[in-house]
């Protein structure tokens, strides 16, 4: 095979063909002076893309949407969404394009999507652009999540456009993020389709979602409800994993909740240092709706919006009226709490090095007592989430001091450790479940600031650390420390 035949990627457009009502054919904005900032070579290779070609002039233009391979059909996808509880009937890719789908070796589809590629018909008041710093943040955090074993969209590349982008805090360099996802189907996509009041379209959308993400639901007598349950369980597992690593998504609007169960949209996200359930970083989340400890509950709320959207199909499948469908959906939604508890217990069992056979009933009180210690409460301030859990593996090996030194209520801690160690925790397994390196906020900011000023070294070092999250390796110790007090309170921003 010659390089040139390998080079030109072949992109499908299954989604655009199946759901023409939910897309608009569109082209990316011409870049001014494109420059590849970061390329994810292993991901490129796993998708059958040629990294050498991607680095070349044509490849970089491809990553910006300016070079469209033969047969590709770039589209902007429409979706709706509840944003902070308020419904927006028409959001959609305002600054993004779905370039198309790549078929992996095992026959699965992967969306290739560009964020920051210019205004689309869904741009509303926006300029269609994205800023280099936030796109690099999405690159770092999504690759960290992937390395942590958490389902996520991936970042293939970040390309500078050479266009200055005007934001509140000044003029900043523009960039496009090339993102890979199992799909970009969101709860908001279903809300949009439901509002069109066209059951046949809603059915086609559900069939797409089932075929791409939850194929077992196709075998069910009640496929729409089976789809809902599959999404419910995938979201329960996802949020439990976020809670386990101290991840705060920051903007869990229904348009940022995927049907696949992958994390998406790393706009205002953050990782905790102090494990405070009320931790909020986003500048606009005044009520703490998307606080760390509120994520399971708000995911339940978002799933209720999905269930509502599916009601006509649930009714049709079961041969019942709307009231009957509401009853079925409500019963299914009410099992989210159980589903989440089971997922959280799986996360906790792994973090505590306890055997899979340990029952939830035995685990639950242990977990509650531990989380009370971690939160601090009356016994003191919250502890550093990542550092504390990692120190617990030393405790499993008999060196209790590092974890003990982190908590104020040492008597409660000692009692807890004695109960836990009696269960014979596996310290090596804990080292594979409790990261040493997460993209801590101060490190992310430092790397983005340097990258914006043209120095990519801190970004590379951070990427190296967070893509080997479980290995201490020879990574500088500062990559595993919480932010110094001088870093102050951290604030993140949406839509930059
Ligand atoms: N600069 C912009 N120009 C046009 N539309 C924008 C812009 N920024 C955000 N939007 C639109 O506003 C909505 C909310 O944006 P948000 O900050 O959640 O990020 P996003 O662009 O949606 O990315 P994602 O695809 O990761 O969800 C989306 O419909 C988005 O397309
Ligand atoms: Mg979004």
UniProtKB/TrEMBL annotation:
Per UniProt, where does ATP bind? 92, 94-95, 115, 127-128, 179, 186, 265
Please give the cofactor(s) recorded in the UniProt entry for this protein: Mg(2+); Mn(2+)
Q: Does the keyword Transferase apply?
A: yes
Q: From the UniProt record, list the reaction(s) this protein catalyses.
A: L-tyrosyl-[protein] + UTP = O-(5'-uridylyl)-L-tyrosyl-[protein] + diphosphate; L-histidyl-[protein] + UTP = N(tele)-(5'-uridylyl)-L-histidyl-[protein] + diphosphate; L-seryl-[protein] + UTP = O-(5'-uridylyl)-L-seryl-[protein] + diphosphate; L-threonyl-[protein] + ATP = 3-O-(5'-adenylyl)-L-threonyl-[protein] + diphosphate
Q: Which UniProt keywords apply?
A: ATP-binding, Magnesium, Manganese, Metal-binding, Nucleotide-binding, Nucleotidyltransferase, Transferase
- Which InterPro entries does the record associate with it? SelO (IPR003846)
Q: Which residues form the active site?
A: 255 (proton acceptor)
Family, per the entry?
Answer: Belongs to the SELO family.
Protein name as annotated: Protein nucleotidyltransferase YdiU
Source species of the chain? Nocardioides lentus
Q: What is the lineage of its organism?
A: Bacteria, Bacillati, Actinomycetota, Actinomycetes, Propionibacteriales
Question: Gene that codes for this?
Answer: ydiU
């Amino acid at each position: 095979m010659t390089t040139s035949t390998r080079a030109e990627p072949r992109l499908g457009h299954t989604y655009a063909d199946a759901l023409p009502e939910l897309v608009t054919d569109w082209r990316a904005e011409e870049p001014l002076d494109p420059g590849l900032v970061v390329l994810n070579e292993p991901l490129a290779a796993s998708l059958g893309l040629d990294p050498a070609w991607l680095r070349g002039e044509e490849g970089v233009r491809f990553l910006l949407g300016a070079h469209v391979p033969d047969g590709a059909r770039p589209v902007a996808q429409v979706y709706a969404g509840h944003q902070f509880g308020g419904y927006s009937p028409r959001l959609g890719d305002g600054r993004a394009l779905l370039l198309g789908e790549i078929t992996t070796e095992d026959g699965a589809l992967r969306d290739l999507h560009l964020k920051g590629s210019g205004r689309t018909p869904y741009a509303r008041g926006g300029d269609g652009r994205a800023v280099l710093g936030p796109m690099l943040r999405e690159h770092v955090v999504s690759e960290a999540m992937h390395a942590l074993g958490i389902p996520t969209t991936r970042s293939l590349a970040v390309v500078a456009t050479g266009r200055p982008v005007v934001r509140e805090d000044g003029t900043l360099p523009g960039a496009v993020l090339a993102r890979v996802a199992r799909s970009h189907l969101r709860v908001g996509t279903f809300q949009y389709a439901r509002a069109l009041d066209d059951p046949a379209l809603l059915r086609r959308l559900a069939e797409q979602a089932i075929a791409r993400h939850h194929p077992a639901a196709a075998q069910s007598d009640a496929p729409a409800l089976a789809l809902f349950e599959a999404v419910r369980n995938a979201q329960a597992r996802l949020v439990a994993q976020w809670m386990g690593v101290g991840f705060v998504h920051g903007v869990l609007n229904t348009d940022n909740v995927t049907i696949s169960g992958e994390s998406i949209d790393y706009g205002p996200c953050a990782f905790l240092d102090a494990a405070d359930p009320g931790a909020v970083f986003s500048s606009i989340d005044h009520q703490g709706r998307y606080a760390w400890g509120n994520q399971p509950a708000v995911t339940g709320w978002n799933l209720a919006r999905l269930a509502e959207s599916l009601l006509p199909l649930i009714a049709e499948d079961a041969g019942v009226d709307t009231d009957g469908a509401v009853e079925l959906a409500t019963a299914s939604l009410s099992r989210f709490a159980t589903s989440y508890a089971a997922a959280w217990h799986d996360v906790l069992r792994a973090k505590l090095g306890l055997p899979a056979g340990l029952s939830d009933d035995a685990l639950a009180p242990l977990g509650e007592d531990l989380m009370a210690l971690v939160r601090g409460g009356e016994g003191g301030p919250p502890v550093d989430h990542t550092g504390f859990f990692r120190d617990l593996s030393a405790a499993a090996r008999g060196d209790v001091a590092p974890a003990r030194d982190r908590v104020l209520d040492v008597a409660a801690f000692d009692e807890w450790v004695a109960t836990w160690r009696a269960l014979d925790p596996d310290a090596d397994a804990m080292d594979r479940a409790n990261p040493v390196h997460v993209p801590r906020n101060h490190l992310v900011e430092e790397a983005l600031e340097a990258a914006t000023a043209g120095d990519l070294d801190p970004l590379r070092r951070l990427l190296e650390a967070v893509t080997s999250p479980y290995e201490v390796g020879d990574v500088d110790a500062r990559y595993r420390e919480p932010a110094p007090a001088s870093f102050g309170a951290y604030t993140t921003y949406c839509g930059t």
